[in-house]
Amino acid sequence: MKKLATTIIASSLLIGVTMSNPTPIEAAAKSYKNCAELNKDYKGGVAKDANVKNKGGKTKYKPFVSAELYKANITKDRDKDGIACER
Fold first, then answer.
1. Domain locations in the chain?
2. Which of the residues 2, 18, 43, 68 could staple to 61 if both were Cys, CB 3.0 to 4.6 A apart?
């Protein structure tokens, strides 16, 4: 019984240690060639934060919020409203 308890505790500790160190999905935010490419992955474009307002009026899709992804694609924000490639 002690051996079983020790094995369970050791296993749970090992699982806890491996789960607490997340692996990065992407090393760096992807920079897209143009808005058509970006909109394939993010239909509403990419916003730098959740509080930005679209200057161009009503859009069809809600933008994905990611400061890193926005920085990598800042040149695609033509109206400088904080949302790149909004549709």
1. 24-84
2. 43
